[in-house]
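INPUT
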Amino acid sequence: MPRLTLSGLTKAYGKLTVVDGVNLTLEEGEFVSLLGPSGCGKTTTLRMIAGFVDPTGGTISVDGNVLSAPGAVVPPERRGMSMIFQSYAIWPNMTVEENVAFGLKLRKLPREEIRRRTAEMLEVVKLNHLAHRYPAELSGGQQQRVALARAIVVKPAVLLLDEPLSNLDANLREEMRFEIRRLHDEFRITTVYVTHDQAEAMATSDRIAVMNGGRIEQVDAPHLLYTRPRTRFVAGFVGRTNLLEARAEGGMLRIDGLALAPTTQADGPALVSLRPQAMTILDAPPTGDGPALEAMIVERTYLGEAWDYVVTPTGSALRLRASAPPLAAYEVGKAVWVEIDPRQVAVVQ
Amino acid sequence: MFLIDRRQMLALAAWSAAASKAWAQAPLTPAEQALHEAAKREGEITWYSGQYSAEASEAAGRAFNARYPGVRCNVVRSTSQVAFQRLSQDQRAGVAQCDVFSSTNGGHYIQLKRQNRLMQFRPASADGVLPILRQADPDNYFQSSFLGIYLMAHNTRMVPEAEAPKSWTDILDPKWKDKLAVGHPGFSGAIGLWALQMRTMYGPDYLRRFERNKPQIGRSSIDPVTMMEAGERAVGVAVPSASTLFSMSRGNPLKLIYPTEGVIAALSPSAIIRNAPHPNAAKLFMEFTCGPALSTAVRELFNESLRPDVPPPEGSRPLDQVTMLAPSLEDAEKGVPEVREQWREIFGV
Amino acid sequence: MNALRPSRLRLLEPVAVLWIALIVALLVLVAVPLGKMVVISFETQETGEFTIANYLTAYGRQRYLDALRNSLLLGLYSAAISTVLAVPMAWAVSRTDMPGKTFTWVMVLAAFIMPPYLGAIGWILLAGPNAGWINQVWRWASGAEAPLVNVYTFTGLAFVIALHSFPLVFIFVKSALDLISSEMEDAANILGGGTWVTMRKVTLPLVWPSILGGFILIFLETIALFGTPAIIGIPARINVVTTQLWQFFEDPVRVEVAAAYAIPLLLITVALIAVQKLMLNRKGFVSQTGKGGERRQVKLGPWRWVLFAWCLMVGMLSVVKPLGVLLQASFSRAWGRGLSWDNLTFRNYHLLLFDHDMAPQAVWNTMWFSAASASLAIVLALLVAYIVVRRLMRFADALGFLAMAPFVIPGIVMAIGFYAAYAGPPLSLYGSALLIILAFTARFLPIAYANSQAAIRAVHPEMEEAARILGSGRLRAIRSITAPLLKTSLLGGWLIVFIVASRELSAAIFLVGPRTRTMSVLLYDLSEQGNFEVVSAFGGILLVITLVIVGIGMKLVGRDFMLRRE
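OUTPUT
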């Protein structure tokens, strides 16, 4: 039985539907991100899981027990979950230790056990030396660790994270990404992670659910999401891509007669996502038998870790973005060959 | 008339202290004894006091407390009209709070008696008061408890004695413009009586002519005494002799004027309210009021004594040498509200 | 699937019960008294039949109409004088390098906590046309016959009221000015606007809503003020609405007529608030653009001394002089005799503290009525604000509206409503402490509410959600998380309500009974007989008590707690 099941979950405020029939299941110990632009309904979904928002349709169940259904909602305190908030919500009137021990005290555990588990948890997040400090005396990263410790120490059935890193600066954000994943690997708590940052989602998650306009567009492992986006939105939101009008003809995707990749699609027009990384720019025609075309460099931008080129195939008005390693420098106006990796060509809806 | 010097003042104080002690300790009469026992069970008595000044009312309350241990007197001192207003509010709200009601406006008692809101009671001590005060009401619904003398006074530094007004009509002379001070019949019962008496003697035009001299209007009849003390106004109209003498005893340059027509004498009663919450304590208070203890207590503050066995206050002209003017209680009941309304139309407040 | 039965659990959430209790409490405190007042204004006394006779009586005389006109004029004068006094002070303290800001601040605070009727008594001693100190000095110095100032005039009355109302404008305008970024002024400077032009064309227009708000508030306070018009207005022969209302309570008590006569106050208030809304809807103002940009002091050069002189003058007039003359009187045998050793006495204080029957009881009444109303108001306001801010219930805004409504109801109207609704049968609360406590609670609920709302807004809802998701119920989360975080600001709110309640007169005067007199009412009663020495001493006691409370507040909550706008 899955740990957490969302089925047909819907939330509407009057005529405005912010979450629209979301279906999602998480196996025990799985880490799933809800990724999407702001306003896509991901935070509302998370708050419905927590019990702070009542659904107008669909259900949420944990281990087969329905916790939320329209008009019948178990309050948050009875769900056995934990949550980490965007603002951390570390209580400034309690020390680090008291913050972490709060949930255990609510569970009426023996005082000795509370002390022991709190100390262990603080050890894990490397805060044991700050146990008696007040939150105001801590840095942002340290506060974030307190929030993590406070949420994990109660061994929740489901851990919810709501944009937990958005208030940290870039370096710290990267460090905490790995910290979150490390803690997940250590405790294997079923986790739902809400973020608008694809790098965060990719670094932490087992699977990512991309949301748009209140719906889930695609749920997949991070690398599949990148290489095999299923919708136009996913292709555009996760990484950059070239969206091309192609045609399927006899099991082959073609653009202007050029065979790109084999397909199972029936004959007819097809929208194709071609990642910049799926193209290699060459001085001479490629030696292999993969698809390739003649083109001209029309724009270039140096990004440090890569060149970002815009090329136009000969005899076409298409503008394709192609990525090249730092040493592959070509002047604007130069004629080149572009080789395409057919495995990275994805048909999207 | 004379100013009391310091030595006389000390002697007076010593005498009155000794006398009031003597009276406080004098054995209770049988009537008092019987009531005292019953009153102790009620514990307190609330006195709406509009007759004596705040100091004298408080002194009377203290004398009562000292003489009858176990019964506490709540002194609620205000101007008479305000005291009556409170009583009316009580009545309107259906709340019984007042035990004994004392007002300088005798008309109040006629009204209360007619409305059957008074309790019949004649204290035994009433037989010992001055003959003019002995029988205020043939049906014994109220008893005289106050003899107030209202006359004129002047600040001797601002107006030499020779130039001071001699009669009630003198103050209508334009030369007194901006020099007079008076209380307000909407607040002070005595001022109501005075205004009524003036109207009776000199016709309705009196107040209008008085107004042309722009007297300063206070609220209480005592207000003008303060105005004279301060030098704000030179002549006080219808001021109580007691407060003026008290002020003189403190060294203020004031002098009483006994108008040629006579002084306004407020022979004012007190009465027990029919629904008094502490009826026995109220009866005891009435015994006290007509007995020597009250006269002794208030005499120290220059109020007239009610009894021949307690001497009149120092500096006051003996009562048998002055003409006393007073509207009858019946006239007061009808006339005071009329004259009050007339006053408001003339003075605007 | 064995679904839990969550719906029943939901229904039992204590918040729902609380919500109903709050609705009832607010109805009792706000809606019923007002409603009852409107109803009885159309009733015949005793029989309760419908009539418009009360209105005919209430407006049937020139004198009554004059009183209405006087009140309106008085409100305008006082509000205008207050604005003129306060705006330069607020600008100087907030935006410039004027010296003596602490002094100015102390003066404003002192003017704020000084009960207006005490100030009125002080000004009688100062500006009585013949004996007032100012006029004595003036005559001595100039040899003139005519007095320099006369408190017993319309302008005198308006001025005395303004001297104790201007702190409201000051607080409003200063808080708004504090929010303006210097960049706004820089932008005008760079285009060629000098300091004065910038102030007139940019800075002040930006805080126009606050000036207007302060103006309207003072107007409303003034037309509902009882003490000062009674103390100064009667000798000055100026009848106003409040003193006229008092006359309707003379025997026979005509509450119905009083109610009819009080209705215009209510209508004026509603109209003014509407006008304010209308005027503010049109433009963007500083209130919408909170932070951003630095704030620098404008350098005034020698002009800073001019501004300081202005602040000094206002401080002298509103605090130092009246307070000085009151203190002098309170230690005098006879205040008219001035300062001399043989005139010095502690007798007045001794009399009040040890020999007076009513005074100690009035002190005690004031303390506990104020404490009880402050506690009640804060608890109620906190719960309402919590529900409104956290949007826990549908129609939560209705609760908030009810809690804020007394803000725009003149205190004296409130008192008449309370008298009409609860003084008589069936509750017969007249003369009871409960009636006064309830009236004070209702009257000062908006202060408590604004305070609580700001405090709750400052606590992120996630603070509580973090506790709830860990397994704590809502009430437990409030108790162990929210309440401790709100403690300080709520204490501040409590103290403010306590202070304003302890000096309240306009509502108390209609509701006190013999055993429930407050210090303010006793002061008023004492002032009736002009015994200014004792009155001043009693005022001194009231001020000492207030100062102690303010001191405690500053210690616990911070220096600014009285003068923040919340």
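end of record. The CA atoms of residues 167 and 224 of chain C lie 17 Å apart.
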